[in-house]
C-alpha cells in the first residue's frame, strides 16, 4: 500500500473514502504531487471525474479474482494475495450479495447476517459437516477441492468436538463468539450447541437419560433468555449478559460408523454469567423493553394469581405503562411468540430443570415485588427531620397501589417479600451507621431513599438470576465436572462486543476491559497460528514484534490502576468521581493509552483501546463500582419469611455487581485477600471472574466466530419474494446508511467498524506483519510468467516450486529476505509484490503498445489494399465508359460521313441526269 512503491498506471487499488471507508480506483498515472486516479462506487459505477491524490494518501492493491471467486468472493480470505481491511470488506460484500453468510479467515469464521431465510441449517447439512469432520476447519485446506464444503459454523462445532473427543491426541476446546448487540451471538451459540449434541448422540443407543439431558441443555437457553434478554432498538431478543457454557462430555469410545470416529457422550453443561445489565431493571430507552420475563409473567399468569399477588396486567395501549419500571409495556411478539406463549415455554423449561410449581410461584412473587417496588414513593417526615446534608428527610408514602387494591404499595411489597412493613419502611428511609462503640441511624432524603429502593429492586432481580443459573447448573451439570466422568469439555463463550457510544460509562469500561483481555488472547492465538503456518511452509523468518495491549490492561487492572483507585475512593467513604479521575491523571500514564481533555471536561478520560479511543464519563463510576445494599436492607431480607428470598440472602451472597454488572455465578478460587470492602466491589469481582475465565481459556484450543450486522434496518441481502420484509434468520443478525443510498443492505462504514472492534483487522495485520502478501505457486507462475523467458517456465522434477524459484531468481530482488519460496506459496515482504505488479503492469503496457502498433499497421494495410482494389475497379469502369463513349462518337461520325458521302454521290448523279436530260432536250429541239 502506501508504504511501498507508488503504483503505476493501470494498477487497480483501494483508496480511502468517506462514504464507503474504502473505494475501488484505477491509477491513471503519476503526477508531481502524487497520483491521478479514477474512483468507482462499490457497485462498479464511475464515481465522478478523475482526481488527484497526494503522495501521502494510502493505497491498497486490489485482488484480481477469477472463476467463482470473482462473483461470489473467496470463501477463505487467506487465499487472497492482498489481505487487508479493504480486501476483507469488499470480499464480504460480494459474499453477502450472493447469499453466502459465512466466510473464513483461516481458522476464524466471520458470520454476516443475510436477514433472510436460507437453507443452511437442515439435517442433511448437519450430517454432511459431521461426516466431513475437522478437515473442513479453516476453509477445508485439509480437504480436496471436490470434497470441501462451504464455510459454516458447523465446521467449527465439528472440529471442536472431534479434537475434544480424540482417543489419543485431544485437548479441551473453546469457541469464542463475539459481536455487537444483535449480531447473532446467541443464535449462533444455540446452533453450535445443538450441532454438537446431535453429533454426540448420532450413534448412541442409550437414548433415555442422555436425551433427557440434552433436552434440558437445549431448553436452558430460552430459559436464560427469558430472564437475561430484552427488546432493544437494535434487536428484539438482545442478550443483556455474557455467558460461558461448558458442554461436558464423557470419555470417548470408538464409533461404529464407517469412518470409526471416536464418540464422546454428552453428559451435561455448566454456565457462568457475566455483566447482567442491571440499569434495564429500572429504566429503558423509548422503544425498548425490560427483561422478557416481566411481560411474560404479566401476560401469562392466571387472573386469580394476579389478584393474589395484587398486580395488574399489561397496559392495553401501545407506549403506555402500568409500572414505573416497565416502559412501553404493551404486549409484544418475540421470535414469533406472544408473551403468553413464551411464558408457557418458560414454565415448561423450569419444570425440566426441576423448578416445579411451588418454587415457580415464589419466583413470580419476587418478580411482582420488583415491579411494585417501582411504585414506591416518598413524602416528607411529619417531624420535619433532616437528612444528611441538611435535606428534608422522608418516609414511604402509604398510597394505595391501584384503585382496586385494598393494600398500599408498601403493604403489597411486604406481603410479596415476606417482610414486615415497618421494617421495609425503616430500611428504605434510614441508614444505620456504626462507629467504634456507637451505632446510630441517619434519615435519608428523597434522592437517597429512591436510590435505596432501586438498589433493592436490582438486588432482588440479579440474585434471582444468579439463583436460576445455579439451579440450571445443578440440573444439567455432570456429577463431577473435574473428575473422571466428565473428563472432556467444550466451552462456548457468548459475550458482548466492544462498545463505543456518545456517552460511555462504567458499564462500557467493564465490557471493553473484557474485550481487551479477549483481544490479547486472540492476537496471541493468531500469531501462534502464523508461526505454525511458516513452519509448515518451511520458510525462515525472524520474530516479529506486534503491539501487545499489556500496558493498557495494566492501566485498568494493575496495581495503581483504574480499579485500584476506584477501590481506594470507595473505601474512603467520602470519595468522589472527580477525585478518582484526578488520581489516575496524576499517575501520568503514557499518552498512547490514556488521555485527558483540557478545558471543561474534568470528569472525563480517554482510553486508547485496540479498536479505537473511547472517552468515558466518570460521573456515577463509584456508585456503580460499589453498588452495595445498605446493611439494613440486607438484614431485612435475611429475616424474610419468604422461602426463596430467605435462600437468596441468608448466606453471604455473591455480589450483585453494578448497575449493569452481575459477576460470574461460578465458584471462585481463593487467593490473596484484599480488604473486605474492596474485594466486594463490582470491578474487583469482575476482574477476578475474568482472570478465572482467561485461565480456563488458556487450557483450551480456541476457535473464533465473529458475528457482523450488515445494516441497522434489517434489510435482506436480496429482495424478499413476497414483497415484505424477510424474517431474521436463525444464525446471526448494526450500521448506518449505505454508501450508495441511505439504506444499503451492506453498510460499508458500519461493517468496517465492526471488523475493527472484533479485532479481525488487527489480527490480519499481525498475521501478515512479516510477509503481508503471499500467492500460491500456480497463481504466481500464471501471473508473472510473461515477464521471463519461456524456458524458465518449463516445469521440471521440482514442479511449480522450482519454477517459482527460477522466476524469483530472474527478478533478482535486492534483498533475498524480501521473499520466501514456501512449499505451497510464495511470501513477500511489504512493497515487493507491489513492485512486481508494477513490472507486470509495465510489461502489459509495453505489450499493449506493440499489439496496438501491429493492429494499426494491419488496419492501415487492409485499408490500402481495399483502396487500391477500389481504384483499379473504378479505373476499369471509367476506361470502359470512355471507350463506349468513343465508340459511340466514332459510329456517329461514320454515319455522318456516310450520309454526307451518299448525299454527295446522289447530288452528282442527279446533276449528271439533269445534264443528260437537258442534253436530250436540246438534242430533241435540234
Automatic annotation (TrEMBL):
The keyword Oxidoreductase is annotated on this UniProt entry: no
A cellular component annotation (GO) from this entry: myosin complex
Pfam families: IQ (PF00612), Myosin_head (PF00063)
UniProt GO BP: actin filament organization
Region (Disordered), start-end ranges: 716-741
Binding site for ATP: 179-186
Signal peptide (UniProt feature, chain positions): none
Molecular-function GO terms, alphabetical: actin filament binding; ATP binding; microfilament motor activity
UniProt keyword terms in alphabetical order: Actin-binding, ATP-binding, Motor protein, Myosin, Nucleotide-binding
Myosin motor domain sequence ranges: 72-841
Similarity comment: Belongs to the TRAFAC class myosin-kinesin ATPase superfamily. Myosin family.
Name of the protein this chain belongs to: Myosin motor domain-containing protein
Gene source species: Rhizochromulina marina
